[in-house]
């Protein structure tokens, strides 16, 4: 189980903790101001001194990449354009493609954080949670 809370800083940052402990695993921080759908976030592992994983793309449309050290794609998130499930439930579906030798639990945690950040931004603008 992961726990996150927002840190106070010039840009929004979200530390992610292991379970309910105070052991910080990584921090997600926005690199830009939130005036556009296309943003860049940075993930800094607790053990690293510099951000290691930029996360870039269109978060509203769930079309973004988690990049390892600026050069290789660790994971891609993309909205599925049509599925029977989305037609029945009225909810959008998206898929996550994780590159070989990348920790799937880490990617799942990052995707969960990006969804939480996206939902928080929608709430601030007076909209419902994402589907």
TrEMBL record:
Source organism: Marchantia polymorpha (Common liverwort)
Stretch forming the signal peptide: none
PANTHER family to which the protein is assigned, alphabetical: PTHR31087, TUBBY C 2 FAMILY PROTEIN
Protein known as: Uncharacterized protein
SUPFAM superfamilies hit by this protein: Tubby C-terminal domain-like
Lineage: Eukaryota, Viridiplantae, Streptophyta, Embryophyta, Marchantiophyta
One Pfam match: LOR
Family: Belongs to the LOR family.
Gene3D superfamilies given in the database record: LURP1-related
């Amino acid at each position: 189980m992961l726990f996150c809370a927002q840190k106070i800083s010039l840009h929004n940052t979200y530390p992610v903790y292991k379970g309910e402990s105070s052991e910080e695993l990584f921090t997600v921080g926005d690199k830009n101001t939130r005036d556009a759908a296309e943003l860049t976030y940075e993930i800094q592992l607790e053990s690293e001194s510099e951000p290691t994983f930029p996360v870039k793309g269109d978060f509203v449309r769930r079309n973004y990449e988690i990049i390892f050290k600026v050069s290789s794609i660790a994971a891609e998130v993309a909205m599925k354009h049509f599925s029977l499930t989305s037609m029945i439930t009225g909810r959008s579906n998206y898929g996550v493609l994780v590159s070989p030798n990348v920790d799937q639990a880490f990617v799942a945690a990052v995707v969960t954080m990006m969804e939480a950040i996206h939902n928080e931004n929608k709430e601030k603008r007076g909209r419902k949670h994402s589907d």
